[in-house]
Design goal:
Blueprint lengths: L4 H8 L5 H13 L1 H15 L5 H7 L7 H9 L4 H14 L2 H40 L1
Helix pairs in contact: 1-3, 2-3, 5-7
């Protein structure tokens, strides 16, 4: 089954899940006609022929901002907006927001990891100082 124009545009924007991306890539490799159709879509999009839906998707107007995702992660987001973020991440499956949330999680964990490294460094240094002092 050939991908739709919407699927091809989502592929170009890397907005599909990995299995769908792989399937479209296989179609593109096997079909010169599909590659030409995709090239036409790119030209049309780049020439300014935009629908409201395309502008909405490309601008990610339905995506929560980073501050909202951070509040969601901390559990301090307004319950109604938190429900929307849940829907956006779990049902819509927005890869951009999921990646942003993963980045925020790593940033949140970084201070704990830094403190652990500092403690290990201090403990190893203190042990070396005792050896030096005792000799």
């Amino acid at each position: 089954m050939q991908p739709t124009d919407a699927e091809l545009l989502a592929y170009l924007d890397e907005a599909l899940d990995p299995p769908a991306m792989a399937a479209i890539e296989q179609h593109l490799r096997a079909s010169p006609e599909l590659r030409e159709r995709t090239a036409q879509l790119v030209r049309r999009r780049d020439q300014g022929e935009h629908s409201v839906g395309e502008v909405w998707r490309r601008g990610r107007l339905s995506c929560p901002n980073r501050r909202q995702l951070g509040s969601y992660l901390l559990g301090t987001l307004d319950p109604e907006l938190s429900g929307y973020v849940d829907f956006h991440l779990q049902v819509v499956g927005c890869r951009y927001c999921d990646a942003n949330l993963q980045d925020l999680r790593q940033t949140q964990d970084a201070p704990q990891q830094t403190e652990q490294r500092r403690r290990k460094f201090f403990e190893s240094s203190a042990g070396r100082m005792r050896q030096f002092r005792d000799s």
